[in-house]
């Protein structure tokens, strides 16, 4: 079988050198990669590096090997085009259909999925022109990754950093695996919560739970590959930030509520995969609670935390917003799940069985997705990304 053909477009940002790592990962995993740099990109990394690493000439203009009509053929034959880094200039050209070099021509002729990994200074990213260009590209079905937050060129820090090449590679792998399926979440904003909240007792202790965040992160990653803008509200997860996702880190249930409600204001769907503590200690001790000789410990009084899923379901931030909950049950799994669905008023409830060595921290999951009309969608034991895709398969047709 022919290797899948990938075009790696490189535009003129400082992060061009990181695209060499992405190129290596793509070639080493069995893809035929053709690098199409812009003239500006060659100021950062030279033609020799791209050619040697890809095994193909790296041409910037349409005027070489004209008999092969490269300005049309390269795009037509590609299975995936990934532009990494994508400059503000490149996003503008792509959004407006300019075609003044080989990469912009390729973007116009490609019929395959297209991924952009923007990287630039925060001011350039936040500029209304760039934001509108990104929204246009997303609406047309391109996967545009949210840049990461961190160190930029020079001493600046902020949003605009090139995501880790390994994470961009994972996005490419997922987008390729979807083949000809349309990016059904293109132009949508989805919010996912992940991980487990921690409710502090004193400066060193907390009440927590065993959630690793893997299921929520899988939901965020798969939504990116389906074209969505994704906000991930992550509670105490040690997993690396997924590429292309806006990650808001939180600690407690109260912080999670605040972050989720804020992000949900303009969201098409909210998926609450985080394990949110039902109760928190009524009192927070400013100093470490001490063990005293001859004294029994004080009982820990608890108070209720806000019920974020019920609140989101009852008070939709916008008409047609879809709210999905998760129920982690240890016994009477389906009966408890049905009761929870009725109680919370959400649109779908993913019910899974959990235990000390079950589901939490595992790479796999097994669940049943319940809908208010009684429909049950069983998801067999498999990777958490497969369950995530099933959730999006069910959410996507309901979006208005
Ligand atoms: C040192 C340096 C670093 C730059 N880094 C970026 C960047 O990270 N992102 C960006 O959008 N533009 C960046 N630029 C500006 C672009 O190179 C410039 O807009 C250029 O016209 C882009 O051309 P291209 O989109 O055809 O590659 C940088 C320029 C210089 C001189």
UniProtKB/TrEMBL annotation:
<dbReference type="GO" id="GO:0004632">
    <property type="term" value="F:phosphopantothenate--cysteine ligase activity"/>
</dbReference>
<feature type="binding site">
    <location>
        <position position="326"/>
    </location>
    <ligand>
        <name>CTP</name>
    </ligand>
</feature>
<feature type="region of interest" description="Phosphopantothenate--cysteine ligase">
    <location>
        <begin position="190"/>
        <end position="400"/>
    </location>
</feature>
<feature type="region of interest" description="Phosphopantothenoylcysteine decarboxylase">
    <location>
        <begin position="1"/>
        <end position="189"/>
    </location>
</feature>
<dbReference type="GO" id="GO:0015937">
    <property type="term" value="P:coenzyme A biosynthetic process"/>
</dbReference>
<keyword id="KW-0456">Lyase</keyword>
<keyword id="KW-0285">Flavoprotein</keyword>
<dbReference type="GO" id="GO:0010181">
    <property type="term" value="F:FMN binding"/>
</dbReference>
<keyword id="KW-0210">Decarboxylase</keyword>
<feature type="binding site">
    <location>
        <position position="288"/>
    </location>
    <ligand>
        <name>CTP</name>
    </ligand>
</feature>
<comment type="similarity">
    <text>In the C-terminal section; belongs to the PPC synthetase family.</text>
</comment>
<dbReference type="GO" id="GO:0015941">
    <property type="term" value="P:pantothenate catabolic process"/>
</dbReference>
<comment type="function">
    <text>Catalyzes two sequential steps in the biosynthesis of coenzyme A. In the first step cysteine is conjugated to 4'-phosphopantothenate to form 4-phosphopantothenoylcysteine. In the second step the latter compound is decarboxylated to form 4'-phosphopantotheine.</text>
</comment>
<feature type="binding site">
    <location>
        <position position="340"/>
    </location>
    <ligand>
        <name>CTP</name>
    </ligand>
</feature>
<comment type="function">
    <text>Catalyzes two steps in the biosynthesis of coenzyme A. In the first step cysteine is conjugated to 4'-phosphopantothenate to form 4-phosphopantothenoylcysteine, in the latter compound is decarboxylated to form 4'-phosphopantotheine.</text>
</comment>
<keyword id="KW-0288">FMN</keyword>
<dbReference type="InterPro" id="IPR035929">
    <property type="entry name" value="CoaB-like_sf"/>
</dbReference>
<keyword id="KW-0479">Metal-binding</keyword>
<comment type="similarity">
    <text>In the N-terminal section; belongs to the HFCD (homo-oligomeric flavin containing Cys decarboxylase) superfamily.</text>
</comment>
<dbReference type="InterPro" id="IPR007085">
    <property type="entry name" value="DNA/pantothenate-metab_flavo_C"/>
</dbReference>
<dbReference type="Pfam" id="PF02441">
    <property type="entry name" value="Flavoprotein"/>
</dbReference>
<keyword id="KW-0511">Multifunctional enzyme</keyword>
<dbReference type="GO" id="GO:0046872">
    <property type="term" value="F:metal ion binding"/>
</dbReference>
<dbReference type="Pfam" id="PF04127">
    <property type="entry name" value="DFP"/>
</dbReference>
<dbReference type="InterPro" id="IPR005252">
    <property type="entry name" value="CoaBC"/>
</dbReference>
<feature type="domain" description="Flavoprotein">
    <location>
        <begin position="5"/>
        <end position="173"/>
    </location>
</feature>
<feature type="domain" description="DNA/pantothenate metabolism flavoprotein C-terminal">
    <location>
        <begin position="185"/>
        <end position="395"/>
    </location>
</feature>
<feature type="binding site">
    <location>
        <position position="278"/>
    </location>
    <ligand>
        <name>CTP</name>
    </ligand>
</feature>
<comment type="pathway">
    <text>Cofactor biosynthesis; coenzyme A biosynthesis; CoA from (R)-pantothenate: step 3/5.</text>
</comment>
<feature type="binding site">
    <location>
        <begin position="306"/>
        <end position="309"/>
    </location>
    <ligand>
        <name>CTP</name>
    </ligand>
</feature>
<keyword id="KW-0436">Ligase</keyword>
<dbReference type="InterPro" id="IPR003382">
    <property type="entry name" value="Flavoprotein"/>
</dbReference>
<dbReference type="InterPro" id="IPR036551">
    <property type="entry name" value="Flavin_trans-like"/>
</dbReference>
<dbReference type="GO" id="GO:0004633">
    <property type="term" value="F:phosphopantothenoylcysteine decarboxylase activity"/>
</dbReference>
<keyword id="KW-0460">Magnesium</keyword>
<protein>
    <recommendedName>
        <fullName>Coenzyme A biosynthesis bifunctional protein CoaBC</fullName>
        <ecNumber>4.1.1.36</ecNumber>
        <ecNumber>6.3.2.5</ecNumber>
    </recommendedName>
</protein>
<dbReference type="GO" id="GO:0071513">
    <property type="term" value="C:phosphopantothenoylcysteine decarboxylase complex"/>
</dbReference>
<feature type="binding site">
    <location>
        <position position="344"/>
    </location>
    <ligand>
        <name>CTP</name>
    </ligand>
</feature>
<comment type="pathway">
    <text>Cofactor biosynthesis; coenzyme A biosynthesis; CoA from (R)-pantothenate: step 2/5.</text>
</comment>
């Amino acid at each position: 079988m022919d290797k899948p053909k990938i075009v790696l477009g490189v535009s003129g940002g400082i992060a061009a050198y990181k695209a060499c790592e992405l190129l290596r990962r793509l070639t080493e995993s069995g893809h035929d990669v053709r690098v199409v740099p812009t003239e500006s990109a060659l100021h950062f990394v030279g033609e020799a590096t791209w050619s040697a690493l890809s095994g193909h000439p790296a041409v910037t203009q349409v005027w070489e090997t004209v008999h092969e009509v490269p300005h049309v053929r390269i795009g037509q034959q590609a299975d995936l085009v990934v532009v990494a880094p994508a400059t503000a200039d490149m996003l503008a050209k792509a959004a407006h259909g300019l075609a003044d070099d080989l990469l912009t021509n390729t973007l116009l002729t490609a019929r395959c999925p297209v991924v952009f990994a923007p990287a630039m200074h925060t001011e350039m990213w936040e500029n209304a022109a760039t934001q509108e260009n990104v929204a246009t590209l997303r609406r047309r079905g391109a996967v545009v990754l949210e840049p990461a937050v961190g160190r930029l060129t020079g001493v600046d820090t902020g949003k605009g950093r090139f995501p880790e090449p390994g994470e961009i590679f994972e996005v490419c792998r997922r987008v390729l695996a979807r083949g000809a399926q349309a990016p059904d979440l293109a132009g949508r904003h989805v919010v996912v919560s992940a991980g487990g909240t921690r409710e502090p007792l004193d400066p060193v202790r907390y009440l927590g739970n065993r959630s690793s965040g893997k299921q929520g992160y899988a939901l965020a990653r798969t939504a990116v590959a389906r074209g969505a803008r994704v906000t991930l509200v992550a509670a105490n997860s040690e997993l690396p930030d997924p590429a292309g996702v806006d990650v808001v880190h939180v600690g407690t249930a109260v912080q999670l509520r605040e972050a989720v409600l804020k992000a949900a204001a303009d969201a098409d769907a909210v998926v609450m995969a985080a394990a949110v503590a039902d109760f928190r200690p009524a009192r927070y001790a400013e100093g470490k609670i001490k063990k005293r000789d001859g004294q029994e410990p004080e009982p820990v009084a608890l108070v209720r935390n806000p019920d974020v899923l019920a609140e989101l379901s009852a008070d939709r931030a916008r008409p047609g917003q879809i709210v999905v909950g998760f129920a982690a049950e240890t016994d009477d799994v389906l009966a408890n799940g049905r009761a929870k669905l009725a109680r919370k008023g959400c649109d779908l409830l993913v019910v899974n069985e959990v235990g000390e060595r079950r589901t939490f921290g595992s790479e796999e999951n097994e669940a049943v997705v319940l809908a208010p009309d009684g429909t049950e969608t069983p998801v067999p034991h498999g990777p958490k990304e497969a369950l995530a895709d099933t959730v999006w398969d069910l959410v996507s047709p309901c979006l208005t």
